[in-house]
Amino acid sequence: MPSKPSKELEVFDNPNADRDYVIRIDMPEFTCLCPKTGQPDFATLHLEYIADKACVELKSLKMYIWSFRDEGTFHEAVTNQILDDLVAATNPRFMRLKSIFNVRGGVYTEVIAEYQRSGWTQQPVVNLQHL
Fold this sequence. Notes:
single chain, 38% strand, two-stranded antiparallel ribbon
């Protein structure tokens, strides 16, 4: 198998580091194991961030996400761990990770974790209306 799971996140230089712009990545095939039962948990991860000098490289992100497939972890813990690892790798201005877990025992879980660099403030939203 040419690819295998990895905890290593690679980055590349942000091609427009002078501008705040949003990068959105959806990962609909996240899996991990329930730490209580060992049964698989399935989730869609929604990542959005404003990069500073570095962006996460997508193949390494796929291999990183794959690395949780055989790990038992609570939804809250894995969401925060992924956010912490991505922040450590990219040092963004802002990052948000939303994990939407599929139903288990009649219960849906959604976990949202955020990071905002100290001193960074969001640009005001421009609302353009059609006249």
